[in-house]
Amino acid sequence: MSADTITGTETTSRATSAEDIDALIARRVPGHSLEAPFYTSDEVYQRDLDEIFAKNWIFVAASAQIPEPGDYVTVEVGAYSVILVRDDDEQVQAFHNVCRHRGSRLLEERQGAVGNIVCPYHKWTYGVDGKLLFAESQPPTFDKSCFSLRSVHVRNLAGLLFICLAADAPDDFDAVAEKIEPYLRPYDLDKAKVAVFDELPEAGNWKLVMENNRECYHCDGHPELITAYFPLFAYEAEDITPRLKPLYDRYVKAGDALAKVRAQQGVPLTDHRELDSRVVGYQISHLPLDGEGKSFSPGGAAVCKKLLGSVKEAAFGDLSLHMQPNSWFHFLSDHAVVFSVLPTSTGTSVLRTVWLVHPDAVEGEDYDLDALTMVWRATNDQDRALVTGTQIGCSNPGYVPGPYSMVEDDVEGFVNWYVKRLGGQL
Predict the structure, then answer these.
(1) Range of the domain at 132
(2) Are 165 and 75 in contact, with CB atoms under 8 Å apart?
(3) How far is Cα 371 from Cα 366, in angstroms, rounded to an integer?
């Protein structure tokens, strides 16, 4: 498609109706970036909330963030607020953060611990299982069992917590979880400890944050990351340029060594990629790291002395997981880093990053916080600048969609999944 096929006027026009958005979806050209209204239109943003974030499984937290009964986190998704709390049976529950009396917000803090959930307005009191325990001045006919907190679908996938706000959640989560769980089992994330939690405001539409993550075409802009991370994600042998050939040869050698370690550990050896062929889209791959091959650090050295779970070998590479629509994960021998993106407005979003370590790892003895977080804090900040520039560029009347490169297949996978789900085609 030539640059003249879609004019600047068309790409920057505001989508003002469902029909306009349907037309944008219908004329989306595979292999090209999206038209500007997908990133700049308030109407598209609202449909994103309604069709993507309210109807799909979205990753919201690591279970290690709520390790004890009564521990909770709150999550904001558009107009929704959701409480995730560990109950007295140590199971994770999810509820709408709304009192059943007159609708007051129940919990304001992002995280904390409670014995019971008490409404700040009229003191209606709920157990951590959501049941109404106390409501003063009610008639004899009042039945507390009819006024439990409204539940939200929640799933714990090997220590990763997903919610779905829809009445009927997509039913292929179980099939995907069955494929992914064996890869995650050695890390024992349910018993991990949170070392650091970061929230990074992004001056860009949530999709731009996700698209940026889905490719390494720009990874030369991440000098801290590529000291250990091979910037070859989604590259095939035929994509390798002369400049990348020495790096690729090192990557192949490291991959052969990792394959032997994976076989000894007894983990699955086949990678999977179903990004746009099912509702719960995902890809999972186990990649070697450069240098020592142990962690995200200069030269691939370890950043924590204690290995996660039942991992036996420090040089265990990087298990990389992508989940549609809003998350990605890196699992190393000595720590894990989990990421989630949530929309906050048409042109803004928030990136949440959590670093997880062994539950017995002691800060200052087994790991140093700066060393643990240096690579991804730097990378996140560099990506934030790239996303900001892209949001500004997509808002420019001169923007027209451009073609993806040969190594941006996973960007296409994300965008294709998004367009299908937005249009009800998947």
Answers:
(1) 58-157
(2) no
(3) 11
Both 131 and 201 in one domain: the answer is no
Token readout for 397 is 């009347």
Written as six digits, the tokens of 119 are: 């409404």
Return per-residue pLDDT of the chain as tens, 426 residues: 444 334 333 444 455 688 999 999 999 999 999 999 999 999 999 999 999 999 999 999 999 999 999 999 999 999 999 999 999 999 999 999 999 999 999 999 999 999 999 999 999 999 999 999 999 999 999 999 999 999 999 999 999 999 999 999 999 999 999 999 999 999 999 999 999 999 999 999 999 999 999 999 999 999 999 999 998 877 788 888 888 888 889 999 999 999 999 999 999 999 999 999 999 999 999 999 999 999 999 999 999 999 999 999 999 999 999 999 999 999 999 999 999 999 999 999 999 999 999 999 999 999 999 999 999 999 999 999 999 999 999 999 999 999 999 889 999 999 999 999 999 988
Contact present, 197 and 352 (Cβ < 8 Å): yes
Same domain, 193 and 68: no
SS3 string of 217-271?
CCHHHCCCHHHCECCCCCCCHHHCCHHHHHHHHHHHHHHHHHHHHHHHHCCCCCC
- The dihedral region occupied by 382, where left means phi > 0, alpha psi between -120 and 50, and beta the remainder, is alpha
Reference 293, options 253, 245, 263; nearest CA is 253
Is the domain of 107 the same as that of 219?
no
Rounded to 5 degrees, φ, ψ at 315 are -85, 70
* Angle made by CA atoms 17, 23, 29, in degrees to the nearest 5: 140
* Gap between the Cα atoms of 308 and 360, Å rounded: 10
Tokens of 389: 């520039």
pTM, entire model: 0.94
CATH number assigned to the domain comprising residue 370: 3.90.380.10
Is residue 6 included in any domain, yes or no?
no
Helix/strand/coil for 332: coil
Rounded to 5 degrees, what are φ and ψ at 69? -55, 135
